[in-house]
Structure prediction request, 576 residues.
Amino acid sequence: MHIDNASRQYKTADGERRTSRCYLLRRSYRDEQGRPRNQTLANLSALPDPVIEALGKMLGGAILVNPDDAFEVKRSVPHGDVAAAHVMASRVGLRALLGPAGRERDIAYALVVSRAVRPESKLSTARWWAAGDTSLGADLGVADASTDEVYAAMDWLVARQRETEKKLAARHLSEGGIAMFDLSSSWVEGSKCELAEFGYSRDGKRGRRQIEYGLLTDPEGRPVAVDVFPGATGDPESFKTAITRVRADFGIERLIMVGDRGMITGTRIDDLRKLPGMGWVTALKAPAIAKLAADDGPLQMSLFDTQNFAEITHPDYPGERLVCCHNPVLEADRARTREDLLAATEAELEKVRRAVTAGRLKDPDKIGIRVGRVINKYKVAKHFITDIAAGQFSYRRDEDKIAAEAFLDGIYVIRTSVPASILDAPGAVAAYKNLKHVERDFRITKADDLDLRPIHHYLADRVRGHVLICMLACYLTWHLRQALAELTFTDQHIPAPADPVAPARRSPQARAKDAAKHTPGGLPVTSYQDLVAHLATLTRQTIVFAGQNIEKLTTPTPVQARAFELLGATVPLAIS
Prediction:
């Protein structure tokens, strides 16, 4: 049997074309003479089109079922975020960087990728894999990883750290090139950590024990190596370790090291002078700058009459070049900040004065304690002159000291041993300002993306493993951010400044993207973190049909599709 569409078109008397609907259920057979015949069994024309279509499929041998009974979505697992991270990790050869294939490498790789998309504790991450709340655990075969295996993988990774970092250095550092180094800290939870000590907190966590870690990068900010130190380690000591690593571990004899003014001290420079081929770029501290400007010294404002930087020499810095820079924007900002701090301090001092005048505060020692607490709160004690006696208190600004400090507002001095033939004055300034890339890495690692802090481990190697995982995740995130910049508020067309001292400005394209909140192609623009969260909504579905499991990806949104286009890959069904 079959359905015969016998509909026909005809034209009415007034020329209008119409269709005469006719669907017939027919049986085909052969008569006694063997000739083919058709028998009409029923006229189906009154039935709806979907019914006629379904009847035709059944007559053709198809089995029709109720979708609600035949299909079951057994599981829906977030997949797009880890898939994107895996695609990029494959592009940069992350697994090969970690070491030879094996169970430990699979778990270590999963820890790094997980940190890049979902920064949680190791135990939370292992539970995430085991619960099947991500495709990562099952695809990499680590969903059943025990706590002991996770810690064993961390220990394995630490044991191979020097080899991994040597491979990164071979990629991104070269003989005669430039490397950046800086130090940061994070506080420690608990009281048993072997490396935890009181020290200068970059997190503003006073009274908390901490660890320190130094990050070595290339000039663009790609992480190359990281070292963990006890919490009281100073910048100069950590820099000494970085020099040893560069020469002994990476085999680089000629390199320009860039560090801030507290990092490359006079003692460290004396050490560098003993190492042929090692150069440095740093900056002078405020007292040294004031000395250059005092008593008709070489640093005078007339240097900046025609441009914002000028190169000088001084006997105190033999064999070195000094590049003096004047940033008017920084000058105005510092003047405004100082005035705000002075005004805030005066408001607090006025409260103390009123208390003394009212007779509520009479003891000079108690007055001094209150005054000391106030003027040290905003770090401007040197700018005030106070007079304290029994039942008396007065204060005034020290205008001479304020004027002396204001004279140097917006001025900084780059100090370098590198000859002008290798690094000219603008290049030296740019090299020092590129420390901003290391600071950006610290923001990514500590707060924005990877949530390194606080430290919960207490064994030294476990702390080192945690920091190393975060550093490798930062390396992966650096590349992801670069590739996906079009879909975020990142400026892809940073204009070259008029001179190396001028502050960076956003490009017209970036300002247009900021205003429109969309790409030129019409896709919405978000923060990097929101983009990763959106990628996670691209899920992998396990569908049961006719007793069989079928795995399918949800249809990518335009943003998700564009993200994988930027990564140069289609969305993989599985991570392999």
